[in-house]
Amino acid sequence: xxxIDVFTLFPEAFxxxxxxxxxxxxxxxxxxxxxxxxxDHTPLSAGQVDDTPFGGGAGMVLRxxxxxxxxxxxxxxxxxxxxxxxxxxxxxxxxxxxDEALVQELAAEPALTLLSGRYxxxxxxxxxxxxxxxxxxxxxxxxxxxxxxxxxxxxxxxKQPGALGHEDSAxxxxxxxxxxxxxxxxxxxxxxxxxxxxxPEVLLSGHHARIREWRLDQSRSRRQPxxxx
Length: 229
Ligand code: ADE
Known about the structure:
This protein is an alpha/beta fold. 30% of the residues lie in helices and 17% in strands. It is built from eight helices and nine strands. It has helices at residues 15-18, 21-28, 64-75, 100-107, 124-129, 146-157, 201-204, 208-221; strands at residues 3-8, 32-37, 50-51, 61-62, 87-97, 111-115, 133-136, 193-194, 197-198. Strands 2-1-6-5-7 form a five-stranded parallel beta sheet. α4 (100-107) packs across α6 (146-157). The protein is elongated, with a radius of gyration of 21 Å. The structure holds adenine. Residues 91-93, 117, 136-138, 140-142, 145, 148 line the site of adenine.
């Protein structure tokens, strides 16, 4: 089971996330989910973690010495070497955009370290010397990396054995091999008829082969034009 450490200035922001069923299931199955507050390890006075950018400009930048101290405190080694042992992922809007392929890749890792930034982001030397990966959850700028780290954790943790409770849940979901990498088919539940809007007849037929075929057809027809992921 995977081990994930999240470095953040706001560990308390993860409390709701960590209480979600798929996370508690994974925790019960051996997931280790830890948090490190950069502020707890800063070598600077008064809990300082950030500074103004050289060259001027708006905002504050998370300092490289602060990130180094936090990584060193957690792992007891020079963080420059940490990448040999685990993926160290900096969440940044300009990173590789998270998609199903990357989620699968990361979910298969034994251990991940997530670095969330705040303010204007990280001193570039954090990305250059400590991070093995830069990941973005989309081409827009969030006020900080916590939500991005949570998105990544959510997607990776639900892939862990036992996280979803029902082992088939992830088999036929959007972008899965069972759907040829395509989006998921439409779902319906009771009532079978509501305001004249009825559920497709085939789903009520109990005919499993026809249902499977209909779902695959629906998934195929929902694909965006262009190459599959
Ligand atoms: N930090 C701020 N914006 C972000 C984004 N879009 N993805 C990842 N980390 C971020």
